[in-house]
Amino acid sequence: MTVSYTLEVANAKFGGFSKLLFRWKGSIYKLLYKDFLVFCGVYLFFSVFYRFLLTPRQQDLFERIALYCDHFTNSSFIPVLFVLGFYVTLAFNRWWGQYTSFPLPDNLMMVVSGNVHGADERGRLLRRTLMRYANLSSVLILRSISTRVHKRFPTLEHVVEAGFMTSHELKKFESLHSDFNKYWMPLTWFTNLASRAREEGRVRDDIALRLLMDELNNYRTKCSLLFHYDWISIPLVYTQVVTIAVYSYFALCVIGRQFLNPEKGYKDHKLDMYVPVFTLLQFFFYTGWLKVGELIINPFGEDDDDFETNQLIDRNIQVSMLAVDDMYQNLAPIVKDKHWAQRHFSIPYTVSTAAETLRPAFKGSTFDMRMSADDLEIHQPADSSVRMKYFPLKSSLGDGLDGLLQRGKGVLRGGSLPSLIDVLSHPNEDEDVDASPEGEVMFSNHNEQEKVIIKVAVEPNK
Question: How far is CA 309 from CA 155, 303, 436, 462, in A?
Fold first, then answer.
């Protein structure tokens, strides 16, 4: 069963993730403890062998070998981090691709329910049979790639017994000889049956039939992707390279990381701690990383975190039949909603979420951005016959430019630069325009009792 801990990490808090470290099912401890015990046992054997079973001359030879092995483990001669990182990334992308390729009938069942009509027994039979064919195809492909599903349906007779296929359909299925996987046959039956439904008028037009075919092809594509993911694995040579790199690295560590006699003055061997704490942590991290790659490279097995394929099969057949049968034309009475008579209304909050109403709505990261007057100045090209500089309009009522634009009145007709030029040339009847020698133009609106000052720089003799 897939191990889910999403709720426990919904909120980041002190010690929240630490609680996950004590889980056993689906943990790295369960996956790694055997390899860890073997490594500790081998290290202990060489330690006892060096300390108590060798003569002084043999100890000198062992120490030279240990220093030589330690030199290679502390250098980049074995690029463990590089090969591991790339391998796990590749395995994770493959794992995610397999997850997103799982054939779910949700889109297809909605199209079948909405486009294969008929409340009589014939219409019900068509809809249920179409979805049974779709689910049968996914069962057939999962039988060939998932050990859990194959154990559940070891033969096609078990598929017939489960109701995904009839005895006559099984005979037709077996009568067609092919050297390849025939998971696509039920989808072909789906196509033929949909065409017959179109001839009978159950599918009312070609557009609806085309929609059925498009969703069926999407469903078939996902079944095909699962088949090819199972067929084409990560190249074996790369898996071998990663495995050899990790295990050879720690094979050298069991000798190279031994604590040597500190009295002989070897470099970095001034203490004799007996237990190589940091080497054990390194083994835990590197080998654990390799085990993660091995775990997710094929999620259709029986590991703790592999996909729950049998449960997905149960879910898919149940919801697809409910959607095309029980839910067909099953509508609640259409009534006025609770807020029918209210133009503006708010949705209530619970006491625990009421504080969220005090937060202002997000309107954009630059909505409250402050700008200086120089930043608001409009720059005209140098070759323009008229160069104008416009500043924000100031209203005596305090509304500013937003107030003028919202009322649809004022000197900015629409708020655009051409409108400003048009106002300078053709003011409204309700507006008085006074120009000063310094280039200030004052607009007075009689109705709004507002004055707006705009500075205009005009070239001489223009």
Answer: 17, 12, 82, 81
